[in-house]
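Appendix B. Raw example, untouched.
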Amino acid sequence: RAGDVLARLGGDEFAVLLEGLSGALEAELVARSILEVVAEPFQVDGREVKVTTSIGISVYPNDNNDTGTLLKNADIAMYQAKEKGRNNFKFFTERMHDDLVAYHELERDIREAISTESFRLVFQPKVNLITRKLQGLEALLRWQHPDRGKVSPMEFIPVAEQSGHIVPLGNWVFNEVCRTINRWKARGLPVVPVAINVSARQFQQPDFYRRVANTLSRHAIDPALIEIELTEGLLMEDTASVQRSLQQLKDIGVRISIDDFGTGHSCLNYLRRFPIDVLKIDKSFVHDVDHTDDSAIIIDAIISLARSLQLDTVAEGVETREQLNFLVDRGCQVAQGFLFGQPMQARDVLPFLEDLIEDDPGFVTSRLAASEIA
């Protein structure tokens, strides 16, 4: 990169100084790039010559904070790389090396799970706090690996994002949501909008909006039944590009929701500039509302802001009746959380869709006394 330093230490030994790396994976990418470039054949006096490279990597401050010691550690790692067969690289810290191996193993398993469609979706209810009925669902990814067992999304989503597998995985999610909606419709049931979390890497694909449009068209899904959830930080990265992409999605007819609102790099200006429909109050504020005045003040401010901008609000992570009562008193329209039920398989959503036909007292009333949220 332009800001990196390359130096010759002597003989055939060189050093590369990299700053601002996010972790071992980024160092590995640079190391592999160096290996590939040096391995390319070149001409000397009309003859083709090939050479190989051995690379040792030490990291500040994990391995040491002394310059000389860092170089020594990198030298040790370089000789370990030579012992592995040359044309290779090795981290001085064994733990970082192990972490990298674990990353690649998980990345391989994710790739295989995508090809065999081993992921599945569950749906978390969104409840209208006025009608007490099911108003929407959020689609969530789950993965049961034959050897790893149940793998947390907190573990596999970042790896899918870094490796690029999040794009085909996201495409599968969109298609599976559409297939599920059509299965519900085939049973003669009313359907509610389904929210789909979209990662930064997926959203930044140049043809993302076209893929969404084609998927909806192929499955004959009303765009109003799809809500796309984006993180707040994503909207701050490239406002011109983001604004264009959001407008393209709005032109299709889908709704746009900002997930975990208030926890990212907040800039209220984007609420005015971007075509947003929903603000989701982060669960960390909801959890603390019983314990700190600050969280209550922030929730009040978000609801008031949304009302002024004519946006809907959804509170995440509602687990207690006290939290629910607080949100109802403040005028929050929709909530989701374990109080209303765990994320459930598509077949378990059926009774709540049936309630919408029969004008049943509703999702909330079936679990809570009516007086609790009156």
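End of appendix B.
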